[in-house]
Structures are given as C-alpha cells and as structure tokens.
C-alpha cells in the first residue's frame, strides 16, 4: 500500500516537468510571433536606446580615468 | 434548513454555503502586495521598493543626490590626502 | 509570541533611516529624465577604488569568488560598488515574495504597515551590505592583517556606498525618475558595460613588459592591425579569443542573446476582448511570453549569490581555503586563476559556470546539467509564485476587466478569471524557463556573467521602456526625446 503511494508520488514528480513542457509548448504554438518588419523596428529602437545610454555611461567612466590617475 | 431561500440566492443550502464561504474567503484575504492593494509597487515585471513616505529623516531628492555625490567626493578627498601625505591606512 | 510580526522589527529604526520625500505632483517628463540620468551618473561615478586597501592588484591574497555574478548586479570588484545593487534587489525580491506568500504578515491596505514594510526592506538591504562587507574584510579579501582603523574605514565606505545606492534608487522609485530605481540603474550600468566591452578605448596593461591592449573588443581588433608586438594574424586571433579582457566572440554571443530577447519579447498570445458597455468595440488583450520579465532570472541569481557567499564563508573564513580540511573536502576549495579570479573546485563548481566552453566540457561536465537545472527550476518556481502575488494574477486582471467594462469574447463574465488562469501562469513560467535556459546556455559558453547580465539588462529595459513610453504619451507633450525612445512597443495600454 505504502509502496504504491510512493510510486504514485514519484510518478507525480516525474509528471510535473512533462506537464510543464507540454503546456509551455502549447502556449508557444499559440503565440503570435512578430513579423520581420515589427522585429526590425523593435531591434532598432532597443539597440539605439541601449547604445545611447551605454555611451553616456561610458563617457562618465572616461572622465573617471584621469581623476583616478590624479588622485589614486 | 429552517431559513427561507433569500430572493435571488442559491436554491439549495449547500450551494448557498459554498457561495457564502467563497465570499468570506475573499473578504478575509489581505492583498499580497502593494500593487494588489492598489498603491503602486512591484508589478509582474518590475521590482519596486519604495511606494510610501515613511516617517524617517526626510530629504528633498536634490539634497539626497547631493549627499550621495558628497560621499563620493569625500572618498576622493581621502584618496588625495593619502597620496599627498603618503600615509596608508 | 502571538501577534509578533517581522515588520515590527523595523519600528525602532523608522525615525533613523533616511527617507526621500514624495513629490507633490507628478513631475514633467523631461525632469524625470534628468533625475534618472543623474542618478545613473552618480552611481557610475561611485565606481571608485576603496580607500585603505593596497593599490597593487597582484598583492591581494584572496581573489574574487563571485566574479560571475557581478555582471547581473552592477557590481565592480574592489570599488565602492563591491556589492552593487545585490542587497537592494535581493531584499526587495525576497521580502515581497515572503509577504506575498504570507510568511511575513503585512496588511498592505494599511498605510503604516506599508511604511514599515518599506523600511524593513531598506533595513534588510543595509544589513546585507554590512554583513557582506564584513565577510569580505575578515576573509582577507582586502589584504591580511588589516588594522582596526582600516577595518572601520572599509566598513564605513562599503556601508556608506550601500546607503547611497539605496537613496539613489529610492529617489527614482518615489516618482522623481522612471518606475524602479534598482532596475533602471542596473540597466544603465549593464548597457555601459556593454559599450565599454565593445568600443572601450581604455588601455589596460596586460603584461609586465608594459604592453597595453584596449578594453573594447572592437577597438582591440583595429589596434591589432598596427600593433608592434604582434603579427596581424596573431592580433586578429587574439581579438577573438583573448580571455583576460572582453573578446569579439563574447561580444557576438551577447549581441545574439540580446536579439533573441527582442524576438521573445514580442511573442504574445492575444485574447479577443469586447466592451460590455459599447457594442462592436472589439480589441485584443495581449498576454506576453515574458510577462515577468527578468525577475525570474534575477531571483535565480540572488539564490546563486547566497549559495556562493555561504560557501565562501565556510571555505575561506572557517577553513581558510585549506584543501586538506574537512569543509574543503566536502565543498571544494578555491583555485586562483589569472591572479584575479577565485574559481571553486568540484562540488561547488557545479553551480559555477565554466570560464570557457571547451575547458568546461572536459573539466566539469556535470556543471552543464546541474547549473542549468538549478537556474531553470528556481526561475520557474519564482515565476509561478510571483505572477500570483504581484498584483497581475488572473484574478487581478479579471477585476481590472470588470472595472473597465471589458470581457473576453465568447465567454461568460464569471469565467474570465478561470479563462485567464489557464493562460497567465503558463505564460509567465514558460517565459521564465526560456530566459533561464538562454542565460544558462550563454553562461556555459564562458561569458562569466555577461549572458545573464545582458538578459537582465535587455528584458528589464523592455519592461521599463514600456512604462516609460506610456508615461511619455500621457505627460511628455513637448519633450524632445521622441527620437531616442522610438515608437512604443505593443502594450496592454491600447485602451
């Protein structure tokens, strides 16, 4: 009896990831994927934003270098 | 069994009890986050910590930012002093 | 201890902690930008060497045990930002998770409880800065035989900079900047690091003969053509596979990962909705694949950080990194690589991504399984819990629908919650799993934290960008940043 129960639990434990993968797959199939035009637009927007912020940040770091040389 | 069916309510006692307990559960439930209580805060993809103004030592944001900047300048000054005097501590 | 609540711990500290005032009214869009950028700049400026430690890198007896976690939390070793944003992010995530799962009793409807909870979060973050600083100081990370003055000065610096970081992120959180301080600062730092790694022109000394190479991979390639100490071919090869500084291969992988996230970000399931008030008002409600964004991965990395810090305490502080002691036999010990990194050996190395793919395949094949499993399982677990508690669960969305007079087409109004419950949890956990797998793949290719970093940066940036564009549409009438922000990505704000 107990054995059977633990078997069940193991089965349940094994089932959980399988179920998860199945659900996930189903969801992905239902997903509306972006078309090329939308995708390039997003990539461009993100790329410009990311690099712009990064360059501002890097400019600050550049100011940092001489200060470090003078002070440290 | 003795109570009469309220108008518009569920017919059978069991269903009525179920409806009642569901209502109770909802009333008892406290919100699980600041957002679900309706005061902003973390959403599903955003982690937000500060939503309310607690009674601490209050700062204007500008002063707060100057203070943090001042802290960094302090560290720089100590560095500079270290370099000038040659002392390491 | 009936009636004891964890948030009451924060009560005595309530009057002591600094607190930024809430703005009287919502700030104009441009002012928010200024505040946000300045907060980011000040944070970047704090990347300054610590006072009181030796300046010569070679002389440090203990190397960096958490080098592969730094990219995610905007931390830089041996500077004021030694721990970066980690304490803030971890205390925010963990306390909110515990409160949501009712392990901490907080009634978010009461203002005082919210204030206490917020103070507790800050206090816990500060406490973590304190503990981490002292772990690192007493492990000998900043040098052996520190004097008491040195210890005090180091403590003051590390905790002080922690407090500064908390205040900076609070300024943004409180509505002077955009949305969330910790996340936006993290994104700014990650993008800065990306730019520095790609086109950074800083010259860094690479050997004793005073040869220097540029930090940026692309700049290094260009310099390779006219370098005196290398042939052209050698320069090109080294630009792709040098391992002491960023190389072009890692840069490419990072860009590919970023592109994949951009694709995933626009994957969504669209549910048809209609208005209950007006006839013929049909629309779609998108449920995004990455609906919990980067938080699942952040949570995994918070866990990794705790595990590695705990191991560091045991191995370095207790067992003194002595391979013959019993703790090191159980947990493994640290090996010094390149004089900068402390790389753990077997059991602990299971949770440490390898430094290169090939080397990793031979020396630690089990890591590939264990590390991936760990990241995926923690991410998915977190995603499931977080979507339920964070105020965007199926029930919350159903309530929102009801308030706005919307219903799913072809469904009864009472069933909205159930219908959504079939989609939203699956979406968030699938999204979290995919991001985790992506991060694990990148990390196992030997990116030393850059893969997870770029995922947190881009996915977090997306979540922020969406809300920022919303803000822009509402208040930024005459702002001149239209070109930078670009067009709004699809969001749930169409109605």
UniProtKB/TrEMBL annotation, chain A:
One of its GO terms (molecular function) is structural molecule activity. SUPFAM superfamilies: Preprotein translocase SecE subunit. It is found in: Endoplasmic reticulum membrane. It holds the Pfam family SecE. The keyword Phosphoprotein does not apply. PANTHER family: SEC61 GAMMA SUBUNIT. Belongs to the SecE/SEC61-gamma family. This is Protein translocase SEC61 complex gamma subunit, archaeal and eukaryotic.
UniProtKB/TrEMBL annotation, chain B:
GO terms for biological process: intracellular protein transport; SRP-dependent cotranslational protein targeting to membrane. The chain crosses the membrane at residues 62-81. One of its GO terms (molecular function) is guanyl-nucleotide exchange factor activity. Keywords: Endoplasmic reticulum, Membrane, Protein transport, Translocation, Transmembrane, Transmembrane helix, Transport. Pfam families: Sec61_beta. GO terms for cellular component: nuclear inner membrane; Sec61 translocon complex; Ssh1 translocon complex. Residues 28-44 have a biased composition (Polar residues). Residues 1-44 are annotated as: Disordered. It is a single-pass membrane protein. Its main location: endoplasmic reticulum. It comes from the Eukaryota. It is found in: Endoplasmic reticulum membrane. The keyword rRNA-binding does not apply. Belongs to the SEC61-beta family. Necessary for protein translocation in the endoplasmic reticulum. This is Protein transport protein Sec61 subunit beta. It comes from Naumovozyma castellii. The lineage of its organism: Eukaryota, Fungi, Dikarya, Ascomycota, Saccharomycotina.
From TrEMBL, chain C:
This is Translocon Sec61/SecY plug domain-containing protein. It is a multi-pass membrane protein. The chain crosses the membrane at residues 33-51, 83-103, 123-142, 148-168, 175-196, 244-264, 285-315, 357-383, 423-445, 451-472. It comes from Naumovozyma castellii. It is found in: Endomembrane system. The gene is NCAS0B07560. Belongs to the SecY/SEC61-alpha family. GO terms for cellular component: Ssh1 translocon complex. Its main location: membrane. It comes from the Eukaryota.
